[in-house]
């Protein structure tokens, strides 16, 4: 089943609205708001520079990190049942709904990353597996004769 094409603007608008509603009641700390709104600002950068691979990569990374930080914020700062008013319940519900939508948003942003020319694999520089560039032979240039005799050949004896 192929998901429909979703605009980056729509993803940012939905998460902005849910984050505003999640921050409405001062139940979650200021770091929740700063983290989510700064990632949304990077998303706006990804909208403005449509060809930038860095912008979409940073937005995707930020979304993935806010999944982790949102889980921590909601689990630590969730109020007890005695202090849970209707407004706080709505605010927490919107924060949880935003958290539940983020994996889908990450998948959609990853598809946009691939459309912009991103690679399928994640290369963090730890493994050295790859093509050996020493075996590369350019086919558009003729092979230049060596300047010095090859050391692999045995020297011919003099006559």
Average pLDDT figure: 83
Strand content: under 5%
Terminus-to-terminus distance: 79 Å
Tell me the overall shape.
Answer: elongated
How many strands?
0
Detail the poorly predicted runs: none
- String of helices and strands: HHHH
Radius of gyration equals: 27 Å
Keywords:
159 residues, mainly alpha, 4 helices
What is shown here, in short?
The protein is mostly helical. It has helices at 8-22, 30-48, 53-77, 86-115.
Note down, in words, how this protein is organized:
The protein is mainly alpha-helical. The protein is built from four helices and no strands. The termini are far apart.
Q: Mind sketching the topology for me?
A:
Elements (H helix, E strand, L loop, with lengths): L7 H15 L7 H19 L4 H25 L8 H30 L44
Helix pairs in contact: 1-2, 1-4, 2-3, 3-4
């Amino acid at each position: 089943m192929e998901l429909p094409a979703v605009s980056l603007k729509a993803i940012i608008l939905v998460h902005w609205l849910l984050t505003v509603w999640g921050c409405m009641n001062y139940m979650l700390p200021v770091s929740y708001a700063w983290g989510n709104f700064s990632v949304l600002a990077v998303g706006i950068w990804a909208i403005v520079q449509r060809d930038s691979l860095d912008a979409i990569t940073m937005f995707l990374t930020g979304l993935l990190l806010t999944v982790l930080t949102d889980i921590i914020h909601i689990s630590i700062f969730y109020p007890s049942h005695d202090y849970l008013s209707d407004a706080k319940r709505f605010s927490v519900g919107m924060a949880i709904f935003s958290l539940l939508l983020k994996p889908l948003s990450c998948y959609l942003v990853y598809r946009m990353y691939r459309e912009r020319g991103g690679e399928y694999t994640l290369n963090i520089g730890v493994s050295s597996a790859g093509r050996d560039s020493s075996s590369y032979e350019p086919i558009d240039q003729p092979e230049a004769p060596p300047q010095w005799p090859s050391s692999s050949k045995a020297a011919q004896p003099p006559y």
